[in-house]
Amino acid sequence: DGGITQSPKYLFRKEGQNVTLSCEQNLNHDAMYWYRQDPGQGLRLIYYSQIVNDFQKGDIAEGYSVSREKKESFPLTVTSAQKNPTAFYLCASSIDSVTGAIQETQYFGPGTRLLVL
Amino acid sequence: EDQVTQSPEALRLQEGESSSLNCSYTVSGLRGLFWYRQDPGKGPEFLFTLYSAGEEKEKERLKATLTKKESFLHITAPKPEDSATYLCAVQGVEDSNYQLIWGAGTKLIIKP
Fold this sequence. Notes:
The structure holds two protein chains of two kinds. By secondary structure, chain A is mostly beta strands. Chain A has strands at about 5, 10-15, 20-25, 30-35, 45-50, 55, 65, 75-80, 85-95, 105-110, 110-115. Helices cover about 0% and strands about 45% of the residues of chain A. In chain A, strands 2, 4, 5, 6, 9, 10 and 11 form a seven-stranded mixed beta sheet that branches. A four-stranded antiparallel beta sheet of chain A has the order 1-3-8-7, with no helix packed on it. In chain A, strand 5 (about 45-50) and strand 6 form a beta hairpin. The relative contact order of chain B is 0.34. In chain B, strands 2, 4, 5, 9, 10 and 11 form a six-stranded mixed beta sheet that branches. A five-stranded antiparallel beta sheet of chain B has the order 1-3-8-7-6, with no helix packed on it. Chain B is globular, with a radius of gyration of 14 Å. Chain B is mainly β. Chain B has no helices and eleven strands. Classes of the chains: A mainly beta, B mainly beta. The interface of A and B includes residues 40, 58 and 111 of A.
């Protein structure tokens, strides 16, 4: 079955530690995204990537880093510089909007909940 | 500044009691409006995309409509399994190709 997988489901971070969240898709989508979800707020975009080896900052990129070495994979690292990392992290993908002509629907993975010890 | 406001924040209905959720938006020009359903602890599940005022889409007990300022998600004769948080997002013509503006969601609870 095609879809988006995220791992782990729960992740615990100690102070000063960097942690990496995994996101893999087998939908053959070009674009991938990372969002952060906090209670009572809308989803906020952290990073997005249109093609391999290229990515752009979203609204709240500070304290986060990403890589896009393969089309299928878009891991997110939460660095020690992110002082308030506790949140639900969502990865999404969409077919292709390189031309910018239309907004393709984004499909989401199951999410990773990050907690601070 | 593009903005999305969803109301109410929470809605409690009896099974079979129809109602509507509202998504009001402010954008320079609308490229698309999206509705998603999210169950607790899970990722959002895509429901509908609407592109122009007057457009309507249906799926089982759900019907989404769009005007120039807002969208409604109508729920007809809901069942307990329709309980979830419903999210609305928009993209304006002046937003970058990948930027969606999200509302905070409406939590819907259907009591048997």
